[in-house]
Amino acid sequence: MSTPSFKIVLLGEGRVGKTSILLRYVDNTYTDRRESTLQASYLEKKISIPSTSDELHNTNVDISNTNTANLYIWDTAGQERFHALGPIYYRDADGAILVYDITDLQSFDRVQMWTKELRKMVGTEDVISLIIVGNKVDLAKTKRSVKMEDAKNYADSVGAMYMETSAKSGLGVDEVFLKLTRRMMERRSIHRSNSRGLASAVGAIGGGKKLILTDKEEQKRKSKHSTSEGYCC
Asked: Rounded to whole angstroms, how far apart are CA atoms 68 and 46?
């Protein structure tokens, strides 16, 4: 069986930490001084998916018993001047990570705008899997501006998952991609199951018997139909 592949896009305002989250996940690196992304960048990563989330932290997990997937991750620019390019990058995406800075309320408001745009351009939660991520949780005790409860309630209202992360410490970053990949795999499995069911139904209809009427039976059927419907012959 071939390894499934998924396209993921990172969306959100500039300076919220999208690139830092991506590089922490792919390369396990972090720097405080990073240039803002211009237009978009792209990275790949193969992910191993344990059968339960608890196994993520278990060093004794037998990797041969896990599923794997290839992730193709697009990191998009958050600056307004690049906003019009968004649809180019999230077209055909299987999943989206919408990132905001928990110390910046405006960045959370913009995540809601991105969500509406995604739904408009791509479709419902059955088409693309979403996870909303509050980054910079390492600053939560002193600078939090967005309540976790408010963010979770919003995520629930749009059919998205929710997590908080710290790209600086790495807290929650791996779990974001694990949860999103699980959701994308589940959705693809459901679609395949539905497609097989539809194909079986079509096959059953196509394999049915044809009813062939003689000329007299056809004339009688038409006459009966016209009378019952009140039509004049």
From this structure: 7
The pTM of the whole model exceeds 0.85: no
- Comparing 73 with 207, which gets the higher pLDDT? 73
Query: What local confidence, expressed as pLDDT, does residue 233 receive?
Result: 35
Cβ-based burial of 212 (10 A; exposed 0-12, middle 13-18, buried ≥19): exposed
**Other CB atoms closer than 10 Å to residue 148's CB: what's the count?**
14
CB 160 within 8 A of CB 179: no
What residue type is 13 in one-letter code?
E
Which of 162, 157, 167 shows the shortest CA–CA distance to 130?
162
- DSSP E strands in the chain: the ranges are 5-11, 40-49, 67-76, 95-101, 129-135, 161-164
If one counts every other C-beta atom within 10 angstroms of the C-beta of residue 165, the result is 27
Place 41 in a pLDDT band, splitting at 50, 70 and 90: confident
**What domains are there in the chain, each with its CATH number?**
5-193 (3.40.50.300)
